[in-house]
């Protein structure tokens, strides 16, 4: 029996498979396509995604393959993200196909098995596992696994087979995408605000494939069936209707459609079946969030599912995945709804864009929207005690007995870290029952304050418990007495955080 079957070798499925394998789980990725098709919907990664790669020591691969740019926006109203407190204060332009290639390389390095031409077509679960029916070039067969995660995209089968509904707001527009040859292309790229037309917008820019242009049309008020076929003629008519020219388009290499329906799965888990990425949520690609959301889902779920699959943590730990990710995703769905509203072709909306654009000029608004757009401001509901609780741990420069390092380097193995910056002997004792699962890092840090996007500087803590996804699960009490962590109350609060997230102490 396989530990975990992941359906779908998109960015979410591959990242999840890497996380599971890093934690020692036997994982099989099944992918419907015979080989990567090289088609990129997404064109970029935001700062938090690059940080996630940095937490695993692979950020350089993506940065080297991409192009950093000051390109972040809210409904194409520019956001200045250069001052955000991260080592990656930019948007990284990198085609989705490259992201998938680099993730698949990493997955194979880690020992993930990837099986292509294998489509999930049915499933049955019981108390001890899931039977997954796979159809492909080997015919039809049933494979058994401890868990199945549907990372099979917005049109995937797993959510429906698991009986999980999708709720949210319906489509109000139709968007078409075509990678086509243009005989008569515009002299310059047509993107962002320049693309706005009376009834929608037409964007045109060079596609990843030399010789092709990507044409994206948006027709407001026109709603088509989700799976209605897109032809060259549909795209041509949309262009003609919106802008009066079809730029002499011909030879389509890829045609697709999408909409502003913003919905998410009613729950991210049904027993032993879980959902992540577009399989769990769909929305308009305003400010390029979907792939980034999927990567964050994968990193939130990976260590939890690994601990449960290995029998080190109780099954309920898996419920925290949906409890944390659903509200974070809902915020992003609202952001895309707001951005679509601001894009609507209408004189009053045009006025609103002007007002909104002026507001974005204020530092506070710019920082708030920048924090959301880069997904650096995500805070999971882990308690209110300290502003650090539930937020991502900043990547501080620290000095450990072995020399200079960074917090993110201590997370490369994908294990939780108890970071002691105060030289407290009591911490080591409090961690005693968890040393097989949690690393203790004793270090010094020069910073008196930690900088966060949006909330700004907060006083540095003397010790924190960092989950493998980089989020802080426990903070030592502020301004402690010399022996505070050794005190019963602090040791108890650390002990309950360790138990909650990483299972009971050894021997209990
Ligand atoms: C025009 C456009 C621009 C975008 N730009 C951005 C951007 O700049 N940044 C960003 O973050 N996001 C962007 N997105 C969104 C992004 O492309 C998606 O959110 C992302 O692809 C989701 O990744 P995923 O792995 O969850 O799903 P997918 O990429 O859809 O991967 C799912 C995989 O599962 C496979 N599969 C499907 N069904 C089965 C089955 N039954 N069995 C086995 N395998 C199956 C599929 O073949 C596929 O390989 C954009 C989207 C669009 C439409």
Automatic annotation (TrEMBL):
InterPro entries: FAD-bd, FAD/NAD-bd_sf, RIFMO-like. Keywords: FAD, Flavoprotein, Monooxygenase, Oxidoreductase. Gene3D superfamilies: 3.30.70.2450, 3.40.30.120, FAD/NAD(P)-binding domain. It comes from the Bacteria. Residues 2-335 form the FAD-binding domain. The keyword Flavoprotein applies. One of its GO terms (molecular function) is FAD binding. Its cofactor is FAD. This is Putative monooxygenase.
């Amino acid at each position: 029996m396989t530990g975990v079957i992941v359906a779908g070798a998109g960015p979410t499925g591959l990242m999840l498979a890497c996380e599971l394998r890093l934690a020692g789980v036997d994982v099989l990725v099944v992918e419907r396509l015979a080989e990567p098709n090289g088609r990129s919907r997404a064109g970029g990664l935001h700062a938090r995604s690059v940080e996630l790669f940095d937490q695993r020591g692979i950020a350089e691969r993506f940065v080297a393959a991409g192009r950093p740019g000051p390109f972040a926006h809210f409904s194409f109203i520019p956001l200045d993200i250069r001052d955000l407190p991260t080592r990656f204060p930019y948007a990284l332009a990198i085609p989705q196909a490259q992201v998938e290639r680099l993730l698949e390389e990493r997955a194979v390095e880690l020992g993930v098995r990837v099986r292509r031409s294998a489509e999930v077509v049915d499933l049955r679960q019981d108390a001890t596992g899931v039977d997954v029916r796979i159809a492909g070039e080997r015919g039809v067969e049933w494979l058994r696994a401890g868990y199945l995660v549907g990372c099979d995209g917005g049109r995937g089968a797993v959510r429906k087979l698991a009986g999980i509904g999708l709720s949210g707001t319906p489509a109000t527009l139709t968007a078409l995408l075509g990678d086509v040859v243009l005989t008569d292309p515009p002299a310059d790229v047509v993107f962002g605000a320049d693309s706005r037309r009376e009834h929608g917008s037409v964007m045109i820019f060079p596609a990843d494939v030399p010789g092709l242009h990507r044409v994206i049309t948006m027709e407001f008020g026109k709603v088509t069936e989700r799976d209605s076929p897109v032809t060259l003629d549909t795209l041509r008519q949309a262009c003609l209707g919106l802008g009066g020219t079809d730029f002499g388009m011909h030879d389509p290499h890829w045609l697709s459609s999408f909409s502003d329906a913003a919905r998410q799965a009613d729950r991210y888990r049904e027993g032993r079946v879980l959902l992540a990425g577009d399989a769990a949520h769909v929305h308009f690609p305003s400010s390029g969030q979907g792939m980034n959301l999927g990567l964050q889902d994968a990193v939130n779920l990976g260590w939890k599912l690994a601990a449960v699959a290995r029998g080190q943590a109780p099954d309920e730990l898996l419920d925290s995945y949906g409890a944390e990710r659903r509200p974070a995703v809902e915020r992003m769905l609202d952001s895309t709804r707001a951005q679509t509203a601001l894009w609507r072709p209408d004189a009053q909306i045009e006025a609103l864009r002007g007002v909104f654009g002026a507001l974005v000029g204020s530092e506070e608004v710019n920082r708030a929207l920048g924090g959301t757009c880069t997904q650096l401001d995500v805070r999971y509901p882990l308690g209110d005690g300290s502003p650090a609780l539930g937020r991502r741990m900043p990547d501080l420069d620290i000095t450990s007995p072995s020399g200079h390092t960074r917090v993110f380097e201590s997370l490369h193995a994908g294990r939780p870290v108890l970071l002691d910056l105060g030289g407290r002997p009591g911490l080591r004792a409090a961690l005693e029952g968890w040393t097989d699962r949690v690393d203790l890092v004793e270090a010094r840090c020069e910073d008196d304050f930690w900088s966060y996007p949006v909330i700004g500087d907060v006083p540095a803590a003397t010790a924190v418990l960092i989950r493998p996804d980089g989020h802080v699960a426990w903070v030592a009490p502020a301004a402690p007495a010399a022996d505070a962590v050794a005190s019963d109350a602090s040791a108890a609060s650390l002990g309950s955080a360790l138990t909650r997230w990483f299972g009971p102490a050894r021997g209990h």
